[in-house]
Amino acid sequence: MQRLLIFISLLCALPAQAAPHASPTAPASEPDWRGLDQGPGRKKPAPSPVTALVQNAPYRVEVATSDVGKVLLTQAFTLERRRVWEADSPVAALAFSPDGGWLYAATLAGEVVALDPDKAIAQPLARVELAAAEEIISLQGAGNADTLNVAVSIGSPEPRSDDGCPTWHGVRRLLLRRAAGSGVPARHEHVQGWSSGGSGWRTSAVSPNTKFRAEVAAGNLEARGRFGATSQRVNAQPLPAGILGIVWMRDSRGIVLGHPRSGGAGRCRSGVGVRAYRFGGAPDGAWTEWALPAAIDVTRPAIPGAALDWAPDGMRWLGVGPRGVMLVEPAPRHRGPVAWIAPPSGAWPVIRPGVRPLVVASTGATLHAELLMEQGNVDAAARLLATAPAGAEVVRLRGRLDHLREVTIRRAREMDGRSDAAANARVATPGAMPDAASPTAP
């Protein structure tokens, strides 16, 4: 542990101009630690449980949802939830500013506010005048700590089309902007049509560690080596038809491929299907493949240019299924590649942007237990605490552990209405939340 801390401190001390780059001599079969190339003479730290935790989920992931007029913020790992705001009318749309400092909310009545997600303080922006058949469709957040800036998409709904997708006509956008904390009314600007924001999909993409370029060639997904790295075929099964594009995961060990979803009874066929490929997951070190269950939406149907809502660590993203809001994790931690985190949301849920590292107070032997606990693996944390020497720190962590168990039991009841006894049984083992690998997954 001491060596790991020393290594991290040295890494943080590197000057900005000495950003790591791919080494021509690094073997292609040796993935970089957290996507960083070690380079000649730099030794990768020895594997340890704490190192694995830091690699896999170093940040808190917060998700905003709505329940009628309530705006809620859920910690996706511990499942703790708090109310940020409550309106008199149902919430229609949510969006964060790019830095996650503001959470914008709009109601069916046309009220638009900017919320401080940490202090639960609302700043009114405008009351949008809606025509008889108009609704607020979505929000696109902008601005920074000093400026409130949001685009409100408005349109009139039409009956679902033949492909099962909702459609809109007369779409217009209202741009609202003013200084934060100012009593001056927000400036209004009207624009016709949808936002021109990109979907994030690319026909080819370079890995974050710069060693590979992923692209589709001759019907296969290829990771073409750069700087001396060996090229590899990624897929073992045939690729789906009509590929939308590809995106690398942040650790340079995963590729996400988007394709049109085939749909189903009552489902919009313009949705996005996903296949995720992970390097080194198979016993022989080859690429493994995982397909997102068809019942889960990862983009809002019928919204042009809708992109995957990635967590700040670039390793997981948001999904919506029949039972509620999901966290999709192709590099699964302890609860499978799809984990339930919140009940169904009235407004389309959004992940809070910005890096928010896990804050832990423990040192020494209890550090690993607290890291596991704050990432939701309460069972593994409990096993470690059972062997830890008695002391004030262990007492504090056991209190925190009891609280997180209670939260998990409440969330299990929310998910499927089970009794307290059944909920207790459900969270008694790792993988308490539903897993997409199971036939009973949501």
Record keyword descriptors for this entry:
four-stranded antiparallel β-sheet, 6 helices, alpha+beta, 442 residues, disordered C terminus, globular, 23 strands, 4 domains, Thrombin, subunit H
How many structural domains does the protein architecture include? 4
Count of runs of 4 or more consecutive helical residues:
6
Overall 3D geometry?
globular
Major sheet size, sense and barrel closure? 4 strands, antiparallel
SSE series:
HHEEEEEEEEEEEEEEEEEEEEEEEHHHH
List unreliable stretches of 5+ residues: 1-45, 418-442
Q: State the helicity in percent bands.
A: 10-25%
Structure summarized in a few sentences:
This protein is an alpha+beta fold.
Please explain how this structure is put together.
Helix 4 packs antiparallel against helix 5. It contains 6 helices and 23 strands. The protein has a 4-stranded antiparallel sheet, with no helix packed on it. It is of the alpha+beta class. It folds into 4 domains: 49 residues, no CATH class; 128 residues, Beta Barrel (Thrombin, subunit H); 114 residues, no CATH class; 63 residues, no CATH class.
